[in-house]
Design brief:
Number of strands: 18
Number of helices: 9
Strand content: 15-25%
Helix content: 25-40%
């Protein structure tokens, strides 16, 4: 049933949009929301609803006073097409190159060495013309399987289970309309991680920076000592930032400053950056650097430069201290299911990071997926099943808490 659920969900078109100002950013996300609402009702959950902002919630009452939230997001990344997904299923993967038939491309273990961990398993990919959508429909499918299990096993002691499926996580807006008080949950997990055993209790601090440079356009034939070319200044600005802090040169716990769009003309140019770091002091240093560089370049080029910096989310680690027991219970559940633990900081963000700062502590559990946000995305069905098994064990263990 897990495979069937997953394949059903990934074929629903739910790509979110960076440009949209509506909530949800794309109305098509309601298509999956309504499917999930109906499935939750069929399972017999209580208080099932889809909000005006496309957040699906429901609850399965338990035998203890505590409640555990299980959260995943429905949207897929706008970085690559999520329309018309055609899954490919490779049984008993032999470790060789995988042919993506739709795009006539190959996913080669030489380029993707983590494929060696999937040998002998059932690997699911797209046909190469779209992403797969395991991020995060694998998490959605895992949560639905856990709910179905506990509906079928009502005699097993458990906390109340609260479920939430959110929109727009991929564009950083998954929790902007999430009412933590209404959700009424003691602690939660997002099921939105990567490969087998990945468990994350910290993530980047994140901000965005918009640098707007004013120029002065004069006919190039008479521009001497008059023209101020905003594009030249924008290039100068970007080249002045440390090359070593670009994302292609960082890994592990290293932060970065990433230019993701550059647009403009002689009259005006705009640079859009994202800023990331695990360490709050280094995070602030990066923001200060961009602000000071804007002031310096404005003086150097005798023009106006506006720098707008906005924090997006923060490292959830400091908010998880009060639920150390939950972290230990997850680790125990992984050990019980022979899952090797990989405590890895998230080089990104999740809904859980934002929810942790709204008062709902929320670490992040693996789904088994790989190579998110592109045509080479894939997942091993057995690893997704392990996520289900870990969650089932976790719920049973939490049901024993006094």
């Amino acid at each position: 049933m897990l495979k069937e659920r997953f394949l059903k969900y990934v074929q629903v078109y739910t790509t979110s949009s960076e440009e949209s100002t509506t909530s949800p950013s794309t109305h098509r996300q309601f298509d999956l929301a309504h499917i999930l609402r109906d499935e939750l009702l069929d399972l017999g959950l209580e208080d099932v609803k889809v909000s005006d902002h496309c957040i699906v919630t429901g609850s399965l009452p338990g035998s203890s006073k505590e409640s555990l939230g299980l959260i995943a997001h429905m949207d897929t990344s706008p970085d690559f097409s999520g329309q018309g997904i055609k899954p490919q299923i490779i049984e008993n993967y032999d470790g060789g190159p995988i042919h993506l038939k739709g795009a006539d491309l190959t996913m080669d273990p030489k380029d993707f060495p983590d494929l060696k961990d999937l040998v002998g398993k059932t690997v699911i990919t797209s046909d190469g013309t779209t992403l797969l959508g395991a991020d995060d429909k694998a998490g959605v499918a895992a949560i639905m399987e856990v709910l179905a299990y506990y509906v079928a096993h009502p005699d097993i002691p458990r906390p109340s289970l609260k479920v939430a499926f959110t929109p727009d996580e991929e564009v950083g807006r998954g929790t902007e309309n999430f009412d933590v008080q209404d959700f009424a949950c003691d602690y939660a997990l997002t099921v939105d991680g990567g490969g087998l055993g990945e468990f994350s209790i910290e993530n980047f601090n994140a901000a965005s920076a918009t640098v707007t440079i004013q120029g002065l356009n004069i006919h190039p034939g008479s521009a001497k000592d008059k023209m101020v070319n905003a594009l030249d200044i924008a290039t100068d600005f970007h080249q002045a930032l440390p090359v070593a802090q670009r994302p292609q040169h960082t890994e592990g716990r290293e932060g970065f400053i990433h230019l993701h769009t550059f647009s403009g003309s002689i009259e005006e140019a705009q640079l859009n950056y994202i800023i990331r770091d695990f360490d709050p002091d280094l995070f602030q240093e990066k923001k200060d650097l961009i602000q000071k560089l804007g002031d310096f370049m404005a003086e150097k080029h005798h023009t106006q430069i506006q720098v707008d910096i906005k924090d997006s989310y923060y490292n959830m680690k400091e908010k998880l201290d009060k639920v150390d027991f939950l972290i230990q219970e997850v680790l125990k559940a992984m050990e019980e299911n022979s899952v090797p633990v990989r405590l890895e900081p998230i080089r990104g963000g999740t809904d859980g990071a934002m929810l942790s700062y709204k008062g709902l502590p929320c670490p992040n559990l693996f789904t088994g997926g790989h190579h998110f946000h592109g045509r080479y995305e894939c997942i091993a069905l057995e690893d997704l099943q392990k996520a289900v098994d870990v969650l089932i064990s976790l719920v049973a263990s939490l049901g024993q808490r006094k």
